[in-house]
Amino acid sequence: MLIRDIAETDFPAVLELNLESVHFLTPLSRARLEGLHRQSAYHKVVEEDGRIVAFILAFREDAEYDSPNFLWFRERYPSFLYIDRLVVRDGCRGNGYGKRLYRDLTEYCRAENLTRITCEVDLDPPNPVSLGFHRKHGFREVGSHSPYDGKKKVLLMEKLLP
Known about the structure:
Elements: E1 2-5, H1 11-20, H2 30-39, E2 42-48, E3 51-60, H3 68-76, E4 81-88, H4 97-111, E5 116-124, H5 128-136, E6 140-145, H6 147-150, E7 153-160
Parallel strand pairs: 4-5
Antiparallel strand pairs: 1-2, 2-3, 3-4, 5-7, 6-7
C-alpha cells in the first residue's frame, strides 16, 4: 500500500470513486475536481497494486471553498483542516485504508502546527459507518445543520490534536 500525493493522472480514478459514493457526497466533475485540487492543502490517494483504492481531500481555513459545511467551520474557528471527503473503493472497505490516511493526515497536521481537524458526517441520509469511523478516530460532535435547502442533515465534528 502506498499513500502519495495525488497526480493529475489519478483524476479519472478519483472521479470514479466519488461516483461510487455520490449518495453521501456532492457530485464532482473533472473541472470541479481540478479547482478543488488547486485549493486543497492535503490531497492524497492510496494505491494498492497499481490501482487507486482510496482518496482524501482536505482544505485549510483560508481556502476559497463554497461548501456550506466548510463555511460553518470557518465562521467558528480561526485555524483548522477540513476534511471534505475520504472515499474508499467499494469492496476495499475494512482494509485499513481510511485509518492509514487519517494517520498520515494527522502527521501532516502536526508538521503544520494544526491542532483542529474538522469534518461532517451525514445524518440524513444516515451514514452510520462514517459516523462510527470518525468517533473511533477521536472526532466529537460540535454541531449540526441542514445545508442544500434542507436536503441533507449533517453532523459537524472535530478532532483536537494535543
